[in-house]
Amino acid sequence: MQDSLQSKNFRINMDEFLPLRDVVFNTLRQAILTGELKPGERLMEIHLANKLGVSRTPIREAIHKLELEGLVIMIPRRGAEVAQITEKSMSDVLEVRRAVDALCVELACDRICDEELDALKKACDNFEEAVKTKDVKVIAQADVDLHDIIVQATRNQRLVQLINNLSEQMYRYRFEYIKDFSQHDKVIEEHRKIYESMRVKDKEAATEAAKTHIDNQKKAIIRQIQLERQKNA
Predict the structure, then answer these.
(1) pLDDT at site 174
(2) Residue 5: pLDDT over 70
(3) 107 alpha carbon, distance to own chain's centre
(4) For a disulfide at 62, which of 24, 139, 148, 216, Cβ 3.0-4.6 Å?
(5) Do 51 and 6 form a contact (C-beta atoms < 8 A)?
(6) What burial class does residue 93 get, using C-beta atoms within 10 Å of its C-beta: 0-12 exposed, 13-18 middle, 19+ buried?
(7) What percent of the chain clears pLDDT 70, i.e. is strictly above it?
(8) Is the pLDDT of residue 6 over 70?
(9) What does the pLDDT look like over 110-158, one tens digit per residue?
(10) Residues 132, 148, 190, CA angle at the centre, nearest 5°?
(11) Which 3-state string (H, E, C) describes the chain?
């Protein structure tokens, strides 16, 4: 495991104006969300401390916070492990996202301004360009940027706050979906459908497009989970 951790690319960012425990927490959380630390991987305090150049105390505190978020589980006699991506956990998260995204596009259809529509169209273009890079992190960020425009266009601060609170959990499954390169053309098409429906203020079509977007994401992730299960059988 020590060799495995040493080969990881994640690094601590000491430029943040945060307590060390929060910097370590953010670093480890990002490594989990992007798959740098993989499901089932053990999080050994001393090895992580050596890797990040910190003491074991902020590592221990970060692992505890990650456990509370559901990204880490504690296994008797083994310690901390990155939580597995299961069909149940994925389904729970995407059920929430499906309902929230549908609400967002419905509200945004009535409230989005011309400048935001232009920004949404550009975000669709940017996502298509990001796909060409084959860089999963770049593609995932372009996807986040696109959906953020719709969320802000709702003009509902409670809804924005709710989505921000769920964003990290949602990002993990978004990242899993984006890693499936065979789905990228479909995602581009779905984004365009959402944009075109919102442009003409067709709330029903926009809502259905948003739901279909999440339904297809769920199917793709289930396929990946099943393939991973077969490989490990």
Answers:
(1) 85
(2) no
(3) 23
(4) 24
(5) yes
(6) buried
(7) 93
(8) no
(9) 999 999 999 999 999 999 999 999 999 899 999 999 999 999 999 999 9
(10) 50
(11) CHHHHHCCCCCCCCCCCCCHHHHHHHHHHHHHHCCCCCCCCECCHHHHHHHHCCCHHHHHHHHHHHHHHCCEEEECCCEEEECCCCHHHHHHHHHHHHHHHHHHHHHHHHHCCHHHHHHHHHHHHHHHHHHHHCCHHHHHHHHHHHHHHHHHHCCCHHHHHHHHHHHHHHHHHHHHHHCCHHHHHHHHHHHHHHHHHHHCCCHHHHHHHHHHHHHHHHHHHHHHHHHHHHHHC
Name the more confident of 41 and 179: 41
Residue 57 pairs with which residues in a beta bridge?
Answer: none
d(CA 69, CA 80): 13
For residue 219, which amino acid is it? K
CA distance 61 to 57: 6
Q: Which residues make Cβ contacts (< 8 Å) with residue 214, sequence separation at least 6?
A: 94, 97, 98, 101
- CA-based end-to-end distance of the chain: 21
Q: Which of 175, 110, 115 is nearest to 140 (CA)?
A: 175
- Report the predicted TM-score, pTM, of the whole model to 2 decimal places: 0.81
Say how many residues make up the chain: 233
